[in-house]
Amino acid sequence: MTARGKRYLLMPLVFGLAAIALSGCISPVPDSTGRYTAPIGGSPVIADETPYSTALRCLDNYTARKPIRIAVGQIADYTGKYSSDNTGHAVTQGAALMAMSALAKAGVPLVERFDTSVAELELKYANNKLITDDPTAKGPGDYRKIYAGSIPGSNYYLVGGITELNFNIRSVGANGDGGTSTSKGLKGSAGANMYVMNIALDLRLVDTDTLEVVDVVSYQKQIIGHQISAGVFDFLGQTFFDASVGESALEPIQLAVRSVIERATLEMMTRLYRVPAGVCSGNLNSSDDPLADPPGQQPAPAPTRTSTAYVTTRENPNEPSRQNPYYGYSSDDPAADVSLRGGID
Description:
The protein is α+β, with helices and mostly antiparallel strands. It has seven helices and five strands. It has helices at 3-23, 53-58, 60-63, 95-105, 117-127, 253-273, 320-323, and strands at residues 70-77, 156-179, 187-207, 213-236, 239-250. Strands 1-2-3-4-5 form a five-stranded mixed β-sheet. Helix 4 packs across helix 6. The longest helix is centred in the N-terminal third of the chain and has 21 residues, at 3-23. It is flat and about 90 Å long.
């Protein structure tokens, strides 16, 4: 048999073997579990942590002394950026939810103001005497009463937005090809690229009673990505081969948003509760915390509701803690192994 005949004989055989192999993964008939195929992957669920989560949990010892109720309002995406493949927004639309989680890590009492639709509907039903709190009631009976002052108010509320998303603010790369000068000689190529983008967040803490802006925080974080590739091409007699390998990675953009929010929350709560210097600074041995009491002075008691003299509206980027990018940064994670994210130790 000629080489051409062997080739035409082998082609349907290869396709047949591939179809048989795939039939073991996907079936046109659902199995006993109701699925056409079993999904891949078995990664366990872990806590969604950032390097600032440990420092936030440290604040729990101070927020418990004098509970100050905080509400979270709209923290919107003001970048106006969409994904390049038109699949949706480039950054998360859930920044307000991230802020609530950050405050909860710090043990700050929260009151719901972000989504009150269910509460408002139940209040409407209760006002019409349609709701009962008796689980055994099967007909008209004792209805839920509405009492004045039953909903606790907030002392402060947190609002702001994601204000910057700058793609590829700088990139660098190198590529090279080499090999023998003969037409059938060994040839190879290699390349590497790195690029950097950034996001920024602006938050403000507002006194609910007076609507005074008592604190403002503006932070940005750079995000890095890289690509590495290598390939080789050669002839082996009457055949040839072309092989290549590559790897690319981009620091998670949404995790960067969460990190910026937790860093801003850490600073605001440290300022609000007058946490002593260096107490919740993570792995740092830093005592230059402008948000804390002077050295040698006893920690001030948690502020009363009517005292706001300790806060300032002016956002001061020259404060030492804001100049220190690793203030509050810690690789310790009591809830999960953050090394699974490939973070910096």
